[in-house]
Amino acid sequence: MIASTQTNHPLPTSNDDESPTAAALQVACNRLKSAGLRITQPRIAILEALIKRSLPASIEQIHAELSHTACDLVTVYRCLAAFEELGLVRRCFFHNGTSLYQIALDDTPSYHVVDKSNNSVSELDSDLAVELRDAMEEIEKKLIARGYTNVSHMIEFFARAPKHPIDRVQNGAVMAEIR
């Protein structure tokens, strides 16, 4: 059970300690502890909101999912900045520059496609994500070989979703074709 350093009382966790949410929360709290940050009720609430989401969310969306007593909007901003610095969250963007945040408990980056017409976000399918990850790793290796340090990347795709996609198989992968 996780103890809050603010209150020294156990924090509420789900009844099913084996749930993926509880396990992810435990991993996140361990990373906070190892970085020397306190585990507070607002941080727990924000982490839980991020863990429950499968797609990135804006700070305002995350704040709206929290109870009114959990924390204020400024606390969400500050916590997400700290989480991003620790690598607990990844930031991505809408095409208009709005920041979106997603929990990042593993080292596998996820890539997204943002629909320009309605700002909906979808995750890149696994085949394309693997191909992109491999290409990015090669580029990062080349940059490191050229003397660059602390290399990272941020990639977002912006497109208009097809209105009437025709699925076809090309090179063993299902592709969508726009008329």
Describe this structure in words.
- This is Transcriptional repressor.
- With 179 residues, this protein is an alpha+beta fold.
- The chain contains five helices and seven strands.
- The chain has helices spanning 20-34, 41-52, 59-65, 73-86, 126-145, and strands at 89-93, 99-103, 112-115, 121-123, 156-159, 166-170, 173-177.
- The strands form three sheets. It has a three-stranded mixed β-sheet with strand order 4-3-5, with no helix packed on it.
- A hairpin with a 5-residue loop joins β3 and β4.
- α3 (59-65) crosses α4 (73-86).
- The longest helix has 20 residues, at 126-145.
- The protein is globular and about 45 Å long.
- The N and C termini lie far apart (55 Å).
Describe the structure in brief.
The chain is built from five helices and seven strands; from the N terminus they run H-H-H-H-E-E-E-E-H-E-E-E. It has helices at 20-34, 41-52, 59-65, 73-86, 126-145, and strands at 89-93, 99-103, 112-115, 121-123, 156-159, 166-170, 173-177.
* Strand content bin: 15-25%
Shape descriptor reads globular
Structural class: alpha+beta
Strand order of the largest sheet: 4-3-5
Number of strands: 7
Radius of gyration: 19 Å
Protein name: Transcriptional repressor
Pfam families: FUR
InterPro entries: FUR, WH-like_DNA-bd_sf, WH_DNA-bd_sf
Organism: Actomonas aquatica
Annotation keywords:
Transcriptional repressor; 5 helices; globular; FUR; 17% strand; 179 residues; two-stranded antiparallel sheet; three-stranded mixed β-sheet; WH-like_DNA-bd_sf; WH_DNA-bd_sf
